[in-house]
Amino acid sequence: MSFLSDYIPSYIQFFLTTTSIVALAVTSLLYTYQCKMIYLAGLPEGSRQVVQKPSEFGMNYTDETLTTKDGVRIKAYICKLPLYARDRPTILIFHANAGNMGHRLFIAKEFYVKLEYNVVMLSYRGYGLSEGTPTEKGLRIDSQAILDFILKDEDLKNTKLIAYGQSLGGAVSIDLVSRNEDKFSGMIVENTFLSIPKLIPHVFPLIKYLAFLCHQVWPSEKAIQQIVNVPVLFLSGLNDELVPPSHMRQLYELSQTRTKHWKGFNDGTHNETVFQPSYYDTIEDFIKKEVLKE
Fold first, then answer.
1. Which CATH architecture has domain 41-291?
2. Among 38, 82, 134, 286, which residue is least crowded by beta carbons within 10 Å?
3. Edge-to-edge strands of the sheet including 90-94?
4. pLDDT tens digits for 245-262?
5. Model's pTM, two decimal places?
6. What residues does the Serine aminopeptidase S33 domain cover (predicted)?
7. Residue 20 neighbours by CB distance under 10 Å
8. Residues taking part in catalysis
9. Is 2 exposed, middle or buried (0-12, 13-18, 19+ CB in 10 A)?
């Protein structure tokens, strides 16, 4: 006869057994399906079927399909300035979690039309009309693919290249620049997290004690310290309800680069920081001063 049946009443045995089974099932589901929980490629509705085009925002563009080194076809927009693309900076946009690159065309328009920068953007694998399923490893491959495309393009390869990323896109930017620092002249990150495991207690408080199961890490707090020469602009919505502003402040403090700037927006929420007054003026000033050296 077992220890349990000798000393513990049967109803308690049943409770412990059932609880253990449920806990194991929940743990297994969280580990197996966390990519579907983390990467919200299907939101908002229709994001996997419809992607707006730059022409709808008054921008010249080519629609490119890139094949990554692991054989996934991803979609990208290449928006070059007519006549003088080679003389102006290029902004490489990495979008935030939900939606696709088309949802960020209003940002691209500010860079392209108002500030007169070339713009390159992509939908990660599993987002928009790109093939595949999103994972941390996959998005890293995608970001390298779009950088390699730029470095082979006759008009863009010698331009000043600036990575710009919002939220998840900021993590992608930090990772890419940390691995290719000599290819970039600047980096701009907005409302980005230290790592996904450190974000879980805030976003999913009910499973905060299971954060150790998270295999989608995005360790921006480590990668940011590997960037030592590229000027970095940190843009933080101080009213961010999704990523605690303390994450951005710590990224700024951890940064070891020779030149870094901080700009906080008092009324900026996670998705509304981009609409705050002086947002694009701050970016333009940073690029003029630290990238173009004007």
1. 3-Layer(aba) Sandwich (3.40)
2. 82
3. 62-67, 73-79, 118-122, 90-94, 161-166, 186-190, 232-237, 260-265
4. 999 999 999 999 999 999
5. 0.89
6. 89-220
7. 10
8. 167, 240, 270
9. exposed
